[in-house]
Sequence to fold (149 residues):
Amino acid sequence: MRTPTKFVAELNDEQKSELQAIMKSDAPQRKRMRAHAVLLSARRYSIDQIAALYEVDRDGVSQWLEWWKEFEFEGLAEDVRAGRPPKLSLEEQAQALEFVREEPRSVRQLVSEVAQILKKSKPADIETVAALRAAEVEACAAQFEKAAC
Fold:
């Protein structure tokens, strides 16, 4: 017996173009995958076909289509996932970011300075400071692109 399937409602041109833009963007991979799944469902690909394409469980694809039906574009986004609590509080992150802006090249030196100034018994690890530096570099690059346009 063939498993019943469901499809998304017909998409208008605006929805199709937005979903295609998401697919081609630098959005998180799962969001791009969900956008493509919605487009495929609109073209009457079954849940089983989409699941086979992405090598995921059919229940997952079914959930993606339910999220689309209920929330549309907001349903494509990732939920916040649990993880290790940050090593620095928001206030300490802001202070560390100031250090990164002052001397962005020396991560190892920044780690020890952050530990001394914030009076941490354990210094912030290199990955924490490097992540702050990477976020700052990305923000600067985005500002530069906007100014160049």
Notes: The CA atoms of residues 35 and 65 lie 10 Å apart. The helical segments are 13-24, 29-42, 47-54, 58-71, 90-102, 107-117, 126-148. The longest helix spans residues 126-148. Residues 13-76 form one domain.
